[in-house]
Amino acid sequence: MGPIGLAGCGRMGAPMLRALRDAGFAVRGYDLQPPEGFGDLTDIMGTDPAVFGRDLSVLISVVRDADQTDDVLFGAGDLVRKAPALRHVVISSTLSPRYIRDLGNRLPDRIRLIDAPMSGAVAGAVERRLSFMLGGDPADLDLLQPLFDAMGQSFHWMGPLGSGAQAKVLNNLLAASHTAMTRLVLDWADQAGLNEVDLLRLIEASSGQNWLASGMDTIEFARDGWEADNSIAILTKDIDAALDAAPDNADTHLPASIRAAIRALQPRSKP
Known about the structure:
Blueprint: E1 4-7, H1 13-22, E2 27-30, E3 45-46, H2 49-53, E4 58-61, H3 66-73, H4 79-82, E5 88-91, H5 97-106, E6 112-115, E7 118-119, H6 121-126, E8 130-135, H7 138-151, E9 152-159, H8 163-192, H9 196-204, H10 211-214, H11 231-244, H12 253-263
Parallel strand pairs: 1-2, 1-4, 2-3, 4-5, 5-6, 8-9
Antiparallel strand pairs: 7-8
């Protein structure tokens, strides 16, 4: 592989870029924020897509949504044109599988597309133990596996292009339901006078155990309220992606109710 670029160096992308650099890969980062704000990554960060795309072989995209993905590839970033040596695009954002499959048809034949959304939150990215859900040609995935090895610990090939995204939106639909219900349970527990620490310890050892309840002290957004640009809002975006790929005639009332409950979340203080 030639030089590797990572676009979208936010809370997830920056530690992923750091993991690749520390593993010895020739990497560079692309973000709209000035390089000076990226600490030890400053010397490999840039805002100019033409410079970023020069001789780039592999692009990993970790931007927020489909619109930003389009912008990186075809819009202001225009890396499809500005990176003529580009051969692989890896989408690690959580996007609709319908969008992923359509994107595969929009890219030129020289570029192979892989969908590789990940799970593990910021802590997983920092500790290099992300779980990747992979979709695409096995030969392409074999070639790129050293990159995934640098960033994660668990790898699940789900099938052809779009399958990784399909698995991720279904996984995140469950995560969203855990978030909504756990926060509701904790609010009700407050009203009943139960101690949060004691209740969470009980839940961890009982049938109500779930991702958010187990991570109230480690998931960085576990106590946040919904805001348009925060990680809780990403859960509602992920529900939208799941609904976009819902089976024909599916009953979507429950996912829509979960989305509404998450949008209504208010910040929760630590006990």
